[in-house]
Amino acid sequence: MSRRSGRVDGTQVAYAATASDGNEDIWIVNADGTGARNLTNHPGGDSHLSWSPDGRRIVFCSTRDDGKHDDIYVINADGTGLKRLTETDNLWNTFPSFAPDGRHILFRRLLGQRMEEGTLFNSEIMVANVDGTDAKTTGARSDFDGWPPGPRMARASPSVPIARLPTRSTS
User: CA 99 to CA 166: how far, in whole Å?
Assistant: First the structure.
């Protein structure tokens, strides 16, 4: 199993698992371990998932269109409504994550070449509307693995802010 992510209400866990044939899909299971089901069931590799703040959708990256380059997709937690959010050639869009307000998705775009060892060069942090429109670079060039819990500012590194987060009510 690679990356896993728990639903906000604690009732389900989603995870990416690799089958014996080497294909990786997104699975969902109840928190008590029952009811496991394959959400994506596609020959392309599906991975790096994140739940929406309301627990209704899952964003992930997949190689399903060309078998080589990752793009960002979203699917409802019940397995319906699959939608491709990014369409890029010769790029890899990875590590998508919903913003705490659920209106944006942050992800890492990898530019350049993939090495035999799996090393990727020239990454940049992107932010887009939740429907994939208006994708913009944040100017940050670093690895990123999702929105941090709690802080008011998402950062690519301690000195590089990439997006101001909405203020959360504590009442």
Answer: 9
